[in-house]
Amino acid sequence: MTPPAGTVQRWAWDFILSEQLAVKTQPPPLPSTWELQPPVRDRRPGPRPTELTVRAKTRTARAKSLEQPSSRAKLFHSFWHHELQAAELMCWALLRFPESERAFHSGLIQVCQDEIRHMALYAGHIKELGFSLGDFPVRDWFWERVPTCQSAIQYVALMGMGLEAANLDHGATYAAEFDQVGDSAGAAIQTRVVQEEIGHTRFAARWFETWTGSTDFERWQAELPPPLSPLLMRGKSINASGRRLAGLSEGFINDLSAWRPVTPRNGSEES
What is the pLDDT of residues 19-51, one digit of tens each? Predict the structure, then answer.
């Protein structure tokens, strides 16, 4: 059943399902009314806005090519789409796990609003580089994986303590690379996003600890939906200071950095 009009749940529902780019980038004002007993729904986006071309695979721009505005624009376009998926998936979790605390739901909406602001920052810089939204293909990578979560615990483990925490690593690396090629505006945007995503990771870690009693690395790893592993939840260089500010312990950070995939007897790696 569709949530009633004028409720936060309906706003989230409409944001996920909208096929209009204008709604994705500038959604209507958020209502103040919450539905008391929201239905359990696993809503997925319908067709993407016509401006976007979705592909099964996309290539990430290499660091050595970032001197070219087109390469940076392509990368910022990927970041923009990551933020869009993150915003949608906050709404997805709100609808998918209605039994969770209202404070958790409120936090999801707050993070969603942050992600939409980040989209605007990226879109503005893409325009400054001479390109527009839709000039590069996108991939719904997060949507392919996050909805495999079967509980709110799995969701915060994967989305917040996993993917968003990894962005603390990746984002810091890219900010330095943008600075190196003279794109100080892009570097500043990326640094700002990283700083704000520290709070998103902290939000997830706090709820993970509330629900499980700890933020132990092994406990966290056990909640990652298979076949996902810690390998995808970190960058080549760990942003240890950012992860500490997000509430992750030194032991967690060290275990994450040291983790390696198991090599089965057949010689293939598990990731």
Answer: 999 999 999 999 999 998 777 778 899 899 999
Contact indicator for 9, 3 with CB cutoff of 8 Å: yes
Question: Both tokens of residue 27?
Answer: 């959604």
Q: Which of 58, 117, 59, 63 is nearest to 237 (CA)?
A: 63
Q: Where are the domains of the chain?
A: 68-258
Per the listing, tokens 């996050």 go with: 146
Residues in the chain: 271
Answer whether 236's CB lies under 8 Å from 268's CB.
Answer: no
Cα–Cα distance measured from residue 189 to residue 195, given in angstroms and rounded to the nearest whole number: 10
The widest CA-to-CA distance across the chain, in whole angstroms, is 56
Cα–Cα nearest to 157, from 228, 253, 239, 224: 224
Say if CB 211 and CB 153 are below 8 A apart.
Answer: yes
Fold of 68-258: Ferritin (1.20.1260)
Each residue's pLDDT tens digit, 157-186? 999 999 999 999 999 999 999 999 999 999
Contacts of the segment 49-53: beta carbons below 8 A, 24+ positions apart? 49/19, 49/20, 49/21, 49/24, 49/134, 50/19, 50/21, 51/21, 51/133, 51/134, 52/21, 52/81, 52/133, 52/134, 52/138, 53/134, 53/137, 53/138
